[in-house]
Write a structure and sequence with these properties.
The chain is of the alpha/beta class and 280 residues long. The chain is 33% helix and 15% strand. It has 8 helices and 10 strands. The strands form 2 sheets. Strands 2, 3, 4, 5, 6, 7, 9 and 10 form an 8-stranded parallel beta sheet that branches. It has a two-stranded parallel ribbon with strand order 1-8. α3 links the parallel β3 and β4. α4 packs parallel to α5 and α6 packs parallel to α7.
């Protein structure tokens, strides 16, 4: 049987609400005893805060499979071997995968992030993400972030409910990517609320997970859409704007680093290093 996957995703970012208030808080290096500050923070606490206030690259993937000759958006297809090599190279470079919830908790002082945290996010909910990506990441003990568009669940070429549950058992975070992947900037208030709040409710009811972040379909959003995301109770939202996510910036306009079919392993590592600006 030949399986054809149709990729419904925008190939560019469009937003009238760019991230603002960015604070470049790069990871600190401590080369000796660090005394307590005036606020009584100890050396171990300062070390933890150094990691937990660092910029975090969020990688953006789509289909994890070789692109067929007639693929409409061939650039969105990354072969499993390429993903495996990228994960191996990032791990060798010292990066540690975490969930977006962990990043938000670290930035908020609720938890501690590992050195050089990185998030690997996968949009839409393709079957290959459960068959290939979760297996590759699981071999390293790494979680991923699934941005699930509900209309892809339990459909040909889409993730099955059972596979999503397996991914959750591997430590994956499941976030919302709307119900039907529309251009949210074109919807009336009721339809916008249904797509944004409704997808969070549906995922939570089906999988029992918190669903704390939203991913804008095709990267399209504006102030009205961002306000709807915040009103629905999400902690953050991810975009297709390039760059690393940084503490102190707008949490509803977090940038990501897109990984395309033609990107070499070295190019992906270089993108990440350039985005965080840490010299890793």
């Amino acid at each position: 049987m030949v399986l054809v996957v149709v990729v419904a995703c925008g190939c560019g970012s469009s937003s009238s609400r760019p991230a603002t208030g960015t604070t470049a808080s790069a990871q600190q290096a401590f080369n000796g005893p660090v005394p307590s500050g005036g606020n009584g923070v100890s050396e171990p606490q300062l070390l933890r805060l150094g990691h937990s206030r660092a910029p975090v690259p969020i990688l953006m993937y789509h289909v994890i499979a070789p692109a067929p000759p007639d693929a409409k958006y061939a650039g969105l297809w990354v072969a499993p071997a390429a993903l495996k090599a990228q994960v191996a190279a990032l791990a060798k470079a010292g990066f540690n995968a975490v969930t977006l919830d962990a990043v938000l908790d670290g930035w908020g002082g609720k938890d501690t992030l590992p050195p050089h945290p990185i998030v690997l996010s996968f949009d839409d909910g393709y079957l290959s993400q459960g068959k290939e990506a979760s297996t590759i990441l699981h071999a390293y003990g790494w979680p991923g972030v699934l941005n699930l568009a509900l209309h892809n669940l339990d459909t040909p070429g889409g993730l099955t409910t059972s596979r999503v549950k397996t991914m959750i058992s591997y430590g994956w975070e499941v976030d919302a990517h709307s119900l039907t992947h529309p251009d949210l900037t074109t919807l009336d208030a009721a339809a916008l609320r249904r797509e944004v709040a409704g997808s969070r409710t549906a995922i939570h009811q089906r999988f029992g997970v918190p669903v704390n972040a939203f991913c804008y379909p095709a990267g399209r959003y504006n102030a009205t859409v961002a306000a709807a995301v915040q009103a629905a109770g999400y902690r953050a939202a991810t975009t297709e704007l390039p760059g690393a996510a940084r503490p102190g910036a707008d949490p509803y306009a977090l940038p990501r680093i897109r990984v395309d079919r033609g990107d070499s392993t070295a190019a992906v590592v270089a993108k990440v290093r350039a985005a965080v600006g840490s010299g890793r």
